[in-house]
Write a structure and sequence with these properties.
By secondary structure, the protein is an all-beta fold. It has no helices and seven strands. It has a three-stranded antiparallel sheet, with no helix packed on it. Strands 1-4 form a two-stranded antiparallel ribbon. A two-stranded antiparallel ribbon has the order 2-3. The chain is globular and about 40 Å long. The mean pLDDT is 79.
């Protein structure tokens, strides 16, 4: 999010509840790290623990929900989106596992 295609990228974590989208993590954008970071292979983990959600990148904790979960089921969307002014890009998801 927020960087031109082909060089850098930025992680974005959003929650959707009751038809409302909330950005909960954007790596400090737009206040800091406006340039993003190099594109590469990442290991992302989403964990439900003690009635909360954790998002990890490798071993680094990216975000933890501060409120207890209030749902029994949910959806995980893995997507790459781009601004309409930029050329189409590809992103690949491998080894998606649900335990």
């Amino acid at each position: 999010m927020g960087v031109p295609p082909g060089r850098n990228a930025r992680m974005l974590v959003e929650l959707r509840s009751h038809n409302r989208d909330d950005t909960v993590e954007a790596e400090g954008w737009p206040e800091t790290r406006r340039e993003g970071r190099r594109i590469g292979v990442q290991e992302i983990r989403l964990r439900v623990r003690s009635h909360s959600i954790e998002v990890r990148e490798g071993e680094r904790l990216v975000w933890t929900s501060s409120q207890a979960l209030s749902f029994e089921t949910g959806y995980l969307y893995l997507q790459m989106s781009s601004h309409s002014n930029y050329a189409a890009r590809s992103i690949y998801f491998t080894r998606v596992r649900i335990d």
